[in-house]
Amino acid sequence: MEQIDRHHCFGGRQLRFRHRSSLLACDMTFSVYLPPRAEQQSVPVLYWLSGLTCTDENFVIKAGAQRYAAESGIALVAPDTSPRGAGVADGGEGEWDLGQGAGFYLNATREPWRQHYRMYDYILLELPDLVGKRLPVNTSRAAISGHSMGGHGALTLALKNPGRFRSVSALAPICAPGRCPWGVKAFSHYLGNDREQWRQYDSTCLLAEMGGSSSGDRPSGEMLPVLVDQGEADEFLAEQLKTPLLIEAARDAGYPMTIRMQPGYDHSFFFIASFIGEHIGFHAGHLVDKT
Fold first, then answer.
1. Contact call for residues 185 and 95 (beta carbons, < 8 A)
2. For residue 118, what are the domain limits?
3. pTM for the predicted model, two decimal places
């Protein structure tokens, strides 16, 4: 793990690293914010998953999250959105929604994607192992969040692995990728045309599978605190994000989620910056020991 950038920020450190990923078979970069508290002790961690076309740097530069992380004593870990490099498969000319920059946080099963596109395992296994061993981060006290494609990744990873996270949130997530153009395109290439295989990476389908038992019958440890914010003026809301389908699926499954429609807000980082403080505060309530 090679440190390639460092900045002092709100009394803490904004760092960037490069490492060779054994799971993705390529070099990967990720960014980490360590709050001032990390100088004395290990701190809880919030993983942030970014959206289409982003790298690990977009969020840490544009969202203004470090201020709130410093106040709460939480580390922020922001991975890249896909494998990258000369030998990594990519979409065609102008295909920004497929290939490098568009990993969709799944494990691809089809060629030519299968060798490198295993972002699900990377986020769940390799990255926490690396961060936990090399930095003052307590990966047993973890939460996950993200935006757009990253919001989709955060929700699916958390719903499938409730024991690994204490809370999950999303801003403008792709809620039903199996029923929107971005998701259908990505899933068709990465997973093939068997739509049953898509369900494991679709939050609405995962919730539907939970619907067999009422919320009162389901163990509380299987139900994470969830916060979702969606701008009502988001240009992608109707065609790509489909928040009403998430609201319906959560209701039918008896899975309590706080899903807030925010008037006037679009899909941009201005939206993220407006609510990131509330999201970090939400996670801090489940991560930080108050004693």
1. no
2. 2-287
3. 0.95
